[in-house]
Amino acid sequence: MRLELVKRPQQSTLFAAISPLIALGLTLVAGAIVFAMLGENPFEALYYYFVDPLRELWSLHELAIKAAPLIIIAVGLSVCYLSNNWNIGAEGQFIMGGILGSMLPVLFPTFQGPLVLPLMLLMGLIGGAAYAAIPAILKTRFNTNEILTSLMLVYVAQFFLDWLVRGPWRNPEGNNFPETRRFHPDAVLPELFPADGRANLGIVFAIVAAILVWLLVSRTLKGFEVRVLGASPRAGRFAGFGTTKMVFFAFMLSGALAGLAGISEVSGAIGQLRPTISPGYGFAAIIVAFLGRLNPLGIIAAGFVLALTYLGGEAAQISIGVSDKVARVFQGMLLFFVLGCDTLIHYRIRLVRSALKSDAAAVAKAAEPASEGA
Amino acid sequence: MKKIVMGLAMALAATTALPAMAQDKVKACFVYVGSKTDGGWTQAHDLGRQQVEKELGDTVETAFVENVPEGPDAERAIERFARSGCDVVFTTSFGFMDATVAVAQKFPDVKFEHATGYKTADNLAAYNARFYEGRYIQGQIAAKMSKAGVAGYIASFPIPEVVMGINSFILGAQSVNPDFKLKVVWANTWFDAGKEADAAKVLIDQGVDIITQHTDSTGPMQVASERGIKAFGQASDMIKAGPETQLTAIIDTWGNYYVKRIKEVQDGSWKTGSIWDGLMEGILTMAPYTNMPDDVKKMAEETEAKIKSGELKPFTGPVKKQDGSEWLKQGENATDQVLSGLNFYVMGVDDKLPQ
């Protein structure tokens, strides 16, 4: 006896629309069970987790700081995933954007003025895009698997940053500690409402990026091309759309946005380069992209939800003493339920008692469109 | 019986802390970089926090947050504490320094204490321990115990703190055996049991027969124990991970400092400052000297006593740098300023310092 997934002839549009909410609900239920098993009052725990961080203004600022990079990266990734390009290396592109963008304040600290910040942001965009072009070249030239190459390049970027801050870019007045000099005021991303909290321009970039990409995908020919090539590369070729160009477009757009997120984080929240500049934003953004149904506007909401799991983990730890690992458990469950819901919207489960030949043929047939749509 | 003892202890705590009863409970909060059960660095800080709870009893309330990454997350965690009514916040990793400085500026009425850093303010004090003093003793023991004449050192990051420990270890070893050598592996992590264990294996395969570490897990101790060689524990007593293996360990004993500073917050005498204490003040202690002959144990105890009394300072000339040039003249002591920015090896270290 075994279980099989069979493609549904028709998908429920209602469930397709509310599936992230179902996933969120299931995560809350599963989370309550986890808390109960830890011996905590589940309602109290969920309150500290999901409500407490929203009660104060300064905490909302922190939420915006956390959500901004997630949204910026996820918006770019949505274009990649819609067009069937599996960029898993946003973390590396984030780092490269941060590095290239930091060149001015680190290497030329005497160059100051209002021009510095725009140039830094531009270089961040370029850094991320150029780094994302590598897996694109490898994919189009040598037909390599972009999932592997983009992921591996993350580690290259991490070690490159590590080497820079310990070696050539190390702060000469920093007692040999692995960090660059702190950025001068002209190189720091301005805070929006300094009186209330730390939130900076990053969240504005996030919203603007989401709206622009939403317009691009839903209102332009390029967006149509993205969707057609993603859904069916063959149909796209018949329509005269170039697959190779699309690979570069998707990778470099998402890389540029990841790079923008990187330099915004470095110049906004951190203020210098350090051996680690991201607590895994590039990977968490993959969850955000799917939770937002690859729709830039949905991604804005999803970004705040995921940011909340980070802050909630800390709040719950301080007030009721549950381990910070619970935050990771929540993020994992969220992705699991989102993907699970999506799968069950597209497929139904069938119980097979014994494998007959005709069945096997049916499975093979059902699997065919599955691999294309996945 | 146990209950009676507990009751007595609490009564005692209550009487000794009587003056503080006049005011509200003081809330002391701790920000940890690792897990409080890591068996090393963070655990040592948490033991200090528990000592505070035990000694100050009802006059104090403590809270902690663990596994806080260095960077913007640290600033948020510290600010959350400052806003949640903490009177004093201890941030226990070097990488929390700038975050602590930033929050301290915003909350002038809250007191901050940062471990192992160098920046201070009116409401921000810095505290550190001279771990290298313990490393000197370890070096001497290693030179006596090693048959190969070479020890292995698992290091975390090439910052002055760590370089200082390596130099002190080799100077201690050379005071016993002038030809003693030291191999270094950079694990590039503070806490990663797997990586640290791999580093230990590599070193043992290269012929070292003593392992010491400036990383926080018990991984190396376990490998040394499997391979039947000796090793030193780090930050906490690791004897449980290697009952037949651990020679001694440098134990960070922050508790006395924490109790003292929190009492000062209670009676209003807290002042900022920067301390760098050692074996003398008891901010670090040596675990029992085990798994070694009596004469080696005696030597170690004598050295410890000399360091405690201030008679012996590990960084005393003549000392040559790795390239053979002179660093300290006969009888000259290294200044704290030079030590806290140390970025070169002394002679005898078989490694190139990552630059």
UniProtKB/TrEMBL annotation, chain A:
Pfam families: BPD_transp_2. InterPro entries: ABC_transp_permease. It is found in: Cell membrane. GO terms for molecular function: transmembrane transporter activity. Its main location: membrane. It is a multi-pass membrane protein. It comes from the Bacteria. Coiled coil: none annotated. GO terms for cellular component: plasma membrane. The chain crosses the membrane at residues 12-38, 58-82, 94-111, 117-138, 147-165, 199-217, 238-263, 283-308, 329-349. This is ABC transporter permease.
From TrEMBL, chain B:
GO terms for cellular component: plasma membrane. The keyword ATP-binding does not apply. Residues 1-22 form the signal peptide. Gene3D superfamilies: 3.40.50.2300. InterPro entries: ABC-Purine-Binding, PnrA-like. It holds the Pfam family Bmp. PANTHER family: ABC TRANSPORTER SUBSTRATE-BINDING PROTEIN. This is BMP family ABC transporter substrate-binding protein. It comes from Oryzicola mucosus.
